[in-house]
UniProtKB/TrEMBL annotation:
SUPFAM superfamilies: Periplasmic binding protein-like II (SSF53850), Winged helix' DNA-binding domain (SSF46785)
Gene3D superfamilies, sorted: Periplasmic binding protein-like II, Winged helix-like DNA-binding domain superfamily/Winged helix DNA-binding domain
Claim: Hydrolase is one of the keywords in the record: no
Superkingdom of source: Bacteria
Designated name of the protein: DNA-binding transcriptional LysR family regulator
Keyword Transcription regulation belongs to the record: yes
Assigned protein family: Belongs to the LysR transcriptional regulatory family.
Residue span(s) of domain HTH lysR-type: 1-58
Gene Ontology molecular function, alphabetical: DNA-binding transcription factor activity; transcription cis-regulatory region binding
Keywords: DNA-binding, Transcription, Transcription regulation
Length: 281
């Protein structure tokens, strides 16, 4: 069977409409409709009931869903295994947003490389929307994010309860720095401190902002694990009376992709988090 037919079926099932499936697969709605007609003809049954609300699986469609998942997963595994480097027996594809690669992703892949050298690792650092799209299209196995994405077929786990706290350089408290930690942080920040966004300097990369502040002085919001050593040494101090913001970290992976390799990779992540409670960036 043409694997694209199974992928199209799954895209409709997960998105709920033929239109959204065509957007996800970057093909026309006519192509989507033709593929499903071909698939239904091959299987000799109707897979979807279409109405104004979208597309709903028939009983036959519900039965076929697990087979379609297996077909696509087996195909992707076969492609990955055929291109594995010598000495590797399996592969894992990890994605993260830019604020998490250093040091979290770095520590994680270091742990996998040391504890499970038979696993080939590939990584992707990009925007959140792109990561979710790549996971949805089965081009990533697991992603690391600050915001949970509760999509159909995704498993979400919180792995770190992190906070953003207001700190300043002990010897020079200015200038004011605004670090953009994402949509949720901006919303909470504006609600708590509506007149504070107009800072002297703005950054969208936390490590850069921290290095600038340590070198030149100033104040801003940073992750507790990153600045713990600097507070302990006296280089930085907490700004009294400032609100703190929750900034947890989540892992997301496709529920049907659970495997021994995935579990081994997740164990390495949890071990690296336990060993590295204070992050160096």
């Amino acid at each position: 069977m043409d694997i694209e037919l199974a992928k199209t079926f799954l895209a409709i099932m997960r998105s709920g409409t033929f239109i959204e499936a065509s957007n996800r697969l970057n093909v026309t709605q006519t192509t989507i409709t033709a593929r499903i007609k071909t698939l239904e003809s091959n299987l000799d049954c109707q897979l979807f009931i279409r109405n104004r609300a979208g597309a709903k699986l028939t009983k036959e469609g519900e039965v076929f869903a697990s087979y379609a998942n297996s077909l696509v997963q087996t195909w992707e595994q076969a492609k990955a295994h055929l291109t594995l480097p010598k000495g590797k027996v399996d592969a894992i594809r990890i994605g993260t947003e830019s604020s998490l690669w250093n040091p979290l992703l770095l520590d994680w892949i270091t742990a996998v490389n040391y504890n499970a050298p038979e696993i080939h690792i590939s990584t992707e650092v990009t925007e959140v929307e792109q990561l979710i799209d790549l996971l949805d299209k089965n081009k990533l196995d697991i992603i690391l994010l600050h915001q949970p994405c509760y999509y159909s077929g995704f498993t979400v786990e919180q792995i770190v309860e992190e906070k953003l706290i207001h700190v300043q350089v002990s010897e020079k408290q200015t200038p004011d720095l605004f670090i953009d930690w994402g949509n949720e942080f901006r919303r909470d920040y504006d609600a708590a401190l509506p007149n504070k966004r107009q800072a002297s300097l703005s950054f969208n990369l936390g490590p850069l902002a921290l290095k600038f502040m340590l070198k030149n002085g100033g104040n801003g919001y940073f992750r507790t694990r990153v600045i713990a050593d600097h507070i302990a040494s006296g280089k930085l101090q907490k700004v009294k009376g400032s609100p703190e913001f929750s900034y947890p970290i989540y892992i997301t992976y496709r529920t049907e992709k659970s495997s021994a390799t995935l579990e081994k990779t997740l164990t390495c992540l949890k071990q690296s988090l336990a060993l590295n409670t204070q992050w160096q960036v």
